[in-house]
C-alpha cells in the first residue's frame, strides 16, 4: 500500500503495464534540481553564502572572545603587579610627613599663581599635566575615585596609567543606570574597578538601625556606606584622584588641584578642578566614553537613588541631592 501524498503533489498514473510507475512530482516544479542547472547553481550559491556569513560571524566572535581574554589577562597581570608594589615589593608606603612634602612640591609645580596677569603669573597646569605628575610621583599607589556619573577621569588616568584601580563606592543604593555605567566602564576602559562596599548590607543596616536610615539620618547613612569604606580602601594607596570640579557647587568653589587629605591621610588630586560642564561633555563625546544615561534625563548630579531627584532646567545642579535637607555633601569631600 502506497504512502498517502500531501501538499501540492500529484500522482501521474502509469498508462501501460510495461512502464515504470511514475514518481510523485510537485506540481509546476521540475522533478529534481539536477534537471535545471540554473536552479542547482543558485541553490549552491545561496548555501555557500550562508556558510560564508556564518563562518565570518564565527571568526569575528572568536576575535572578540580572544580580545576579551587578552584584556582579562592584562588586567589580572596588572592587578597582581600593582598589588605587589603596594605591598611594599619595591618601596614602602610613604609616611604622612613625606606625602605632605610631595603635596608642597606638586603645588609649587602645578598650581598657578594667584594674580592673573601679574608678574610671574603662571597658569594652572592642565588635567593631563597633573595626571602625568601624579603617575610619575605615585605610580600604582594612585587610585581614581568614581561615582560613575561619567567615565572621563577614569579614561584620562588610564591613558597614562593603564589598569589603574578605580574605586567605586558601591553603597547598595545605586540606580540601575549607575551600575550599568560601572559595568560598561569595566568593559570599555583599561581600568581595574574596585567595588568599595560598606561593612553592612542594606538588609543588615535596616535590621540594626531600622529601615530608610537615609531619610532619618543621612549623615549617619553616608558615614557608614560611603565615608568609612572609602577611608578603609584608601589605606592601600598614597593618593587618590577625584572628579571634583569648582563649578559643581559653592562648597567646591575653591577646590585645589593638589591637597593633603587629612581625613584619609593621603594626597588628594583634583585634575578636573577647573573644567566646566561643557568641557567634560565635549571630552566624553570626543572619546566616545560611557556617560550615565540619567545625566541626560534630568539628573545633572547622581548619587544614591533614595537621595537623588530630578532637577529643573537652570536650577542648582546639586539641588536634587538630599533635596529639602540641610546637606549638600556626603562627606567624602568635606
Ligand atoms: S546618599 Fe543617601 S542612601 Fe547613599 S549613603 Fe548617603 S544617605 Fe545613604
From TrEMBL:
Residues 141-309 form the Phosphoadenosine phosphosulphate reductase domain. Its EC number is 1.8.4.10. It is found in: Cytoplasm. Pathway: Sulfur metabolism; hydrogen sulfide biosynthesis; sulfite from sulfate. Its main location: cytoplasm. Residues 1-43 are annotated as: Disordered. The active site is at residue 330. Residues 29-42 have a biased composition (Low complexity). Binds 1 [4Fe-4S] cluster per subunit. It catalyses: [thioredoxin]-disulfide + sulfite + AMP + 2 H(+) = adenosine 5'-phosphosulfate + [thioredoxin]-dithiol. [4Fe-4S] cluster binds at residues 221-222, 304, 307. Its cofactor is [4Fe-4S] cluster. The keyword Electron transport does not apply. Keywords: Cytoplasm, Iron, Iron-sulfur, Metal-binding, Oxidoreductase. Belongs to the PAPS reductase family. CysH subfamily. Catalyzes the formation of sulfite from adenosine 5'-phosphosulfate (APS) using thioredoxin as an electron donor. This is Adenosine 5'-phosphosulfate reductase. It comes from Myceligenerans crystallogenes. The gene is cysH.
